[in-house]
Amino acid sequence: MNVSPESTPPRPPVEEQDSPLSPGTHTIAVRHGSSVIEQRYHVAGTGPVCIAHSGGPGIGWEYLRMPLLEQDLTMVYVEPVGTGASGRLPDARQYNLATYTRFLHAVIEHLALPEVALLGHSHGGFVAQRYALDHPEHVASLILYDTSPVTGDDFWSVAVANMERFAQRHVAEHPEVATYVAGLTAPLGQLDDDGATSVLRSFLPTYFYDYWGREDEFGPARQMLRMYAAPARGEGPPFDVRGELAGVSAPTLVLVGEADFICGPRWAQMIHDEVPGAQLVVLDKTGHLGHVETPEAFATAVVTFLASVHGGTE
């Protein structure tokens, strides 16, 4: 979902395998139990390397394209297993945090760089937190974008309450918002990919501060968004790294939209309070997709942070 009011959407990556960081789409083979699974990633931009892990689980990676960051950084976008053209696990119950973390590690090892900047959005932020704790030697800096240190009952009850308030504010002008809470709590794993995509697209306006005021910009991206159902069938305990985050050694930026209904400032503050020396940036008038809704402010925050901890992005 690479829409920016100041830029032309970038061209789709092309298959290019000359080197692990050549521009385009790359595929590696990752051993998973007795299976070998294809893991794809996409390279765009120029400058120091930043690996980006998208959210979901199960959302197509394309929404996370960040054209403004690609002007300063070589962005490596992971296409998570179970989505797009990456491989599928033989047992859908194995779409869990440990699996995503291991496949991310396979990509980072394949790049053969001593350290990388790691950016995780939403569920991808769960993966990034776990990876930074398990493999600190590979993480030069960490950007935790619209994510949380914990899920579980309290996390979801807050998200539902926020969506209910959103619906109350907008139902008079947009009656369809009355169905949004049901969409958020729908068991997507029981649907096929088209059904899961339809549900996600249906309540996408809640991910923005002002979707309808800028629908001409965001509407086309809504229709391009894809959701894959199988990752929703993954099994594992609720995510919770509270009490562990003091062990994060990489310089860390916590970046959050002030109006993010699902991974908002409450959760960002928790991360900031636990990670030693973390910086916190709250994007004004921004929801869950700051790189789309306020792309200049988003990119400035990331590039400024990386310059402060690495002495520049050139």
Query: Care to count the β-strands?
Result: 8
Query: Low-confidence parts, pLDDT < 50 over ≥5 residues?
Result: 1-12
Rg over alpha carbons: 18 Å
Given helix and strand content, the structural type is alpha/beta
Order of helices and strands: EEEEHEHEHHHHEHEHH
Mean pLDDT: 92
Brief synopsis:
The protein is α/β, with parallel strands linked by helices and 314 residues long. It has 9 helices and 8 strands. Helix 1 packs across helix 2.
Give a verbal description of the structure:
- The protein is an alpha/beta fold and 314 residues long.
- The chain contains nine helices and eight strands.
- The chain has helices spanning 97-111, 123-134, 153-170, 180-184, 193-202, 215-224, 265-274, 290-293, 295-310; strands at 24-32, 35-45, 49-53, 74-79, 116-121, 139-145, 252-257, 279-283.
- The chain has an eight-stranded mixed beta sheet with strand order 1-2-4-3-5-6-7-8, sandwiched between helices.
- A hairpin with a 2-residue loop joins strand 1 and strand 2 (35-45).
- The longest helix is centred in the middle third of the chain and has 18 residues, at 153-170.
